[in-house]
Write a structure and sequence with these properties.
Chain lengths: 538, 992
Amino acid sequence: MTHATRKCLAGLALGCMMLIAAEGCTDVTETPYGEVTAANYHPTAEDLTSLMAPVYTPQRQIWMGWYGMVDFQSETADDMITPVRPLGWYDGGTYIRLHQHTWGPTQGQPSSLWSRVYSGINAANRVTYQIESGVVPLEGEVQAGAIAELRAMRAYYYSILLDNFGNVPVVTDFTATELPEQSTRQQVYDFVVNELTESIPDLSPVADNTTYGRMTKWAALGVLARVQLNAEVYTGTPHWDEVLPLTQQIIDSELFSLDPDYLGPFRVDNENSPEIIFAVPYDAVYATGSNWHMKTLKPDLRYVFKLNGTPWGGTSANPQFIDTYDADDQRLHDTWLMGPYYDDVGHGYTFVQHVKSIEESECYCAGFPMAKYEIYAGETGSSNVDFPALRYAEVLMMKAEALLRTGHAGDAALIVSDVRERDFDETNPAKATITGAELEGGSVYNYGWMDVDGVVKDQPGGNPTVNGGADIQYGRFLDELGWEFVGEAQRRQQLIRFGVFTTKSWFNHTPMGDFHSIFPIPQSAMNTNSNLDQNPGY
Amino acid sequence: MRRVALLVTALTLVVSAGAAPLRAQGGTGRIIGLVTTSPTNQPLASAQVSIVGTTKGALTGANGRFVLAELAPGSYQLRVALLGYAPQTVSGVNVIADSATTVNFALEATTVELAQVVVVGYGTKRREEVTSAVTSVTSEDFNAGPARDAASLIAGKVPGLAVGTPSGDPTEPTEIMLRGVTTLEGSTTPLVLIDGVPGNLDAVPTPEIESITVLKDGSAAAIYGSRASNGVILITTKRHGSGPPTLRYDGYVSQQTIYKRPDILSAADYHRLIGEGYDLDDQGYETDWIGLLTRQPLSHRHNLTLAGGGANTNYTTSFTYQNRQGTFIRSDNEVMTGQARIRHTMLDGRLEAEATLLSRSQTYFTGPDFNYAFQQALIRNPLDGPRNPDGTWRQTSTGALRYVNPLSLIEEDNGSAENRLQRLHGKLTFSPIDRLQFSLLTGIEKDNVMRGDATTFQHPNNTEDNSGGTAERSASSTRDRILEMTGTYNDRIGDHGFTFLGGYSYQDFVDEGFSAGNSRYPTDLLGDDDLGAGTGLPDGIATMSSRKSTYNIIGFFGRVNYDWKNRYLLMGSFRYEANSRFGAGHKWGAFPGISAGWRIGEESFMRGVSWVNDLKLRVGYGVTGIAPDRSYLSLTGYAYGDPIYSNGAWVPGVSPIRNPNPNLRWEEKDETNVGLDFSLFDFRLSGSIDAYRRETKDMLYEYAVPVPPNLYGRQLANVGRMRNDGLELSLSYKVIDRPGLTWVTGANWSTNSNELVSLSNDVYQTADFFYEGSTGAPIQQSTHRVMVGEPIGDFYGFESVDIDDEGVWIVLNKDGERVSIRDVTEADRRVLGNGIPKHFFAWNNSVRFRKFDLGVNMRGASGFQLLNFLRLYYENPTQLDYNMLKSAFDPVYGKRTVDYDLAYVSYYVEDGDYIKLDNVTLGYTFSPPQNGLLGVFQNARVYVSGRNLLTLTGYKGLDPEVSFSGLAPGNDNRAQYPTTRMFTLGLSFTLQ
């Protein structure tokens, strides 16, 4: 082989490589597997239910999930506490801060709420955009109904933000990429009222199995009524008159009625309760995340209730709240576990009302667990019980409160007595009836600092507060709300509306300033959006 | 890919066809041959082969081969010379017309330290030519005795490469970290190349490894572009030359004991405390739970290698069997590896073909989480027993959470995994002319894992949940393919030496798997072999899933080496690489590397300095990249999941699964390295010093983003910056060097300081800190804080300084005042230490006396803290539901015992500084028997070895060698697999 041949050969080989390099595999396009991408996904009207799912699913975390509203709307209020237990529940002091109103912008529960609610809002915006831009081709009434449902769901989510944070950014455009601007609480209120009012006419009036768990006309009316009931808190201007026609529409539909059994709306089969207007369906297999029972039950109770899981034993009743009950009120025993309870081998478990302090409790047995949601044999870490996000009793009580506050105490008392009837029918039916004068009176709650010995005293240091509840206007009505709706994520809102949340002491809590009636904008949101100003006081 | 395959075939054909004319050489003859190192058989490039008395000569190519052509028939004398090696001369080489005479040389290094051939990216370099921070360890310097994987062979040998064994689990790999933490999100494992093909550190049985080279700095690693940020580890396996067949055996048997048992209350202690009035539960048994769970495990490994071959063809086959028992009952790891390699040269040595097949089968018990079982053994009541009289498990409840009979966890969980690895690669090397060489490398690696796990009816989960047995199966499979073509040309014109390298690389990866699980079985007898027998399907509690993902990487690369008089050395490399995982328009990245060396020792002005044998200054700069470890991150993807209740049924929802980041691009690491290599006092003292700065920019991390407009609160993006500065020193000194007795001592030390420079840019604004790590339940607090301006690894919690009369912690608040822990807030948390050692050091000794050899290796780390979870959880005498450490009754701060809930305070953060007597090995090599039947035995050696023999430390936990990786380093968890001390007896010999 000559030198020239070799050079030629070398050149050829080199050229070959260059060829491969230039023309061959320089392709680094991704072929996605195991997911559909925007490029190849073309949904149709058939896919609407699937598309709607992410608009609803965040509710499962919001209400009865870990750090859910059922927990912290009470842990910040006067009905329940999560004290440190012998082997846990300090959790970085998070429950102590909730109880003592010393939370800051990094507090976990409001931060979780913020992100969960916005994920629902985001999904609503996205699906709205997909429908309006024709990505999901819908027509006529179907399109109008879907858009109305999305708008109402979004408004419902904003109503939660309105209540908890006040000044939040209102985002409705999925395609917007700039950092959202913050709205005032008044603007958020106006937006929610307007969106609900506009979407109600196009929402489904059907209330049966086909719309269970969905935002119907009746659910939207109830949400709007709840917003108007709290309008004075949100805007400074009361709107009691708006509440009456909204609640009346639901009553007049005659689609709903009080369940004869107080616990009916809280049972595993509560989808059959005539009382539920808007539910968040849970399922131990398909729709997991409802773990209130795990949070409140003592570990050993698994042997009593034949649970398929060991509960964690954290939250229990504030002993002062238990003291407010009438002993004949069946709700006392329907709501709280006292014992004794026996397992198969005869071990007994009894709970005591007394809890030493928020920072220390002698045992898991200190404080009554809240077991209003049915505990059933075979229950796993995820409960099957649906959450009644709006039930008929609340509609009635909203109407009653609006009447009471507009000078119709007698009419209000009739409604309240109706609601109470099932709670005394087996003990002392006469006690069900309540008068307008009683409702206008103060609360029976013995507000004040509770010392380790269980005695209510003046709190050490701090601003002095008035002990007892006699000075609370319509305090008796507040008590009624407490007994009826305990454990339904409403107590904080009730206390704020009745002016108690930031003025009274209870257990180891003393008032820390009015600004605590809304939570701070979560630090995680502040960090990522420079347009946000922190709520006053934080 | 198909097109590439076709072209490859075409290239191969061209190469073969073009080579044919080489045979025709009328009238003259040729001498061909191979120059290698002795005894390690590495090809030596640039060796000068000359015919004595003539001007004819040739340089060897990168493959060590030379050709002297157009020689008149006759007898010649051949001489080969190469700096750093003893020259050799061979007389009487006969050249016959029209044929080639083969003469091979195996050169002995003149000095061990300087003459090594070092494997660098896509080639080899002589030690003195290297201009980057590269450390190479050859087999004779490997740590003796059992090794988990390739990394444990070089633990303590490579300054800057931290190798840890934080777990005694026989299936756990070693933990490695090169030059500090450089990334938050990306992988921290180095790129491992086995004979040029990517693989894992445990793919090749350790007796078959010839050398391990670590490319530490950016200038050396840059040619590997992506995945090279954490360094590159090049593993070269043993190759055997031609010669009569040899059969080599290398085996050992070893036994382990737990290095240190936690000092918990015994049954006797419980009885005593009950007598003192403590409310402890006496169930009428006395049990040593840790004793019940553990054993002194035996492990053994046997490696047989058969090698041989003729002038043009040789082969190496090996079979390795390894069975490693774990300290915990039932835990094991059985590995069988077969490897076969055949090499053939043709066309007078111009074409070399090599094919290697490796097949490995690993089976191991996967049953329970042994770490958790260990934790349960610690806390279980020693006055309780494992079984009831009827044979069922005792599951006495104290009412406390997470309290299970640990023996039942292990005995009632039957899990196993089989991991089948296959590597096949072929290499074709062709030298059309001297000094020019083309290489084609193709390889495929398949890794299939089949797992099964079944819990019996008696498993505590099932007895408690009344759920019957559970069983599941899963299979996963990865497949990597590689194709690489390189061309190399080296030459020397006068004082100027050059090497040019160019190449193309294609790699693609497929990862897929599926799993299924069922429960409520009618019988325990089926295990996981008949999932269909379970009845969980109609109840909706059976599970099923599958997945698949792919990606590919394409690179073009080149390198130029230049030297002037072997004195001034320059290296420039460049890689242009694409990874499909990035956003469109951001897939390609450029990774340059440049380095220079000045061999000061070669300068004339150094001639008079006789005590300096060699002195080289190196400076290098290189850019490497890190890619994310998941695919499709830049795309908008939807997945079906979380269902909605619709008309009585659950309908799967469809939703976006991520915030797509179309701008996702390379995380880049720029590294500058300055180093000095020296060899002094007649080569008695040698060593290196390296100083480096590594700057990570466009750092990948899941950054917090606002929702809306984003779909999710986190997005993988290129935002932050991180810096590591470090210094490394290694020294080797021949204390005694005379016939019959040598003693070489070596020490190395490295230090690194890390700083997170930034977490924000114009687009991504985020808090300048985030929390990492968790104490776990029930304390539920983060253990670490990652903060801008601070190093990774800071412990962050309450700083305890005292305890009050009631047994409650006194801590410092944010203003430095002493307050009760009852009165603190989150704002009072402080930095309590750092979990990453500031210094790593090692001292290695090797003594040879006649036929004895003794190796003593010590290794240590200092300048770090550990969070002692055992004390944090079990040194609190108020927690009577769980067993505890005896020290729970020792006074805290010399005052009294704790009477407060469990709390994460600095009292449990301890200094972790340690020195370990890591390895002592004593060996004896037999003289080869001269005659008789035993004459076939060669190189027979026996050794005894001890590992992890002694630890000098003030740390009160079990072993201060705790995981230093991740963002929460130094958490010495209570749930762990304790480390062991190991004694080994080994034997090796060769049959010839």
